[in-house]
Design a protein that fits this description.
The chain is mainly alpha-helical and 128 residues long. The protein has 5 helices and 2 strands. The chain folds into 2 domains: 75 residues, Multidrug-efflux Transporter Regulator, Chain: A, Domain 2; 49 residues. The chain has a two-stranded antiparallel sheet with strand order 1-2. It is elongated.
Length: 128
């Protein structure tokens, strides 16, 4: 199978359903480093993988700084144990944040239910 060796910004934008401006932003942040052919950006398979990881991290709720940190730990010639442990830690932290948000949402729902019931009770008292 002949694998494509380079990608245009438009191809990557379509593949990942993002704008070209988004990709240029990641370039400005130093996360991807396309080569240039005149004014045209030429992205490598490594740039494509980096972009895929950034967008996956974003979906998981990781900040751009967190994704950058994790991607920066990758060592092509190593076993990447350090990177994987850091990722596990970030996942645990994110899960803890989400669980706290769920507890906060449930508490807020209870407060809304209580406030609504007080309104209903007050309306019933007015009708007596």
């Amino acid at each position: 199978m002949n694998k494509k060796q380079t990608y245009s910004i438009g191809e990557l934008a379509r593949e990942f359903d993002v704008t070209t401006r988004t990709i240029r932003f990641y370039e400005d942040q130093g996360l991807v480093s396309p080569a240039r052919r005149g004014q045209t950006r030429v992205y490598s398979p490594a740039d494509r993988v980096t972009l895929k990881l950034i967008l996956r991290g974003k979906r998981l709720g990781f900040s751009l700084a967190e994704s950058k940190e994790l991607i920066g730990m990758y060592q092509p010639s190593g076993d990447n144990r350090h990177q994987l442990l850091a990722l596990q830690n970030k996942i645990r932290q994110r899960r803890d944040q989400l669980e706290q948000q769920l507890r906060d949402i449930h508490a807020l729902q209870q407060e809304l239910d209580d406030a609504e019931q007080r309104c209903v009770d007050a309306m019933n008292d007015l009708e007596k």
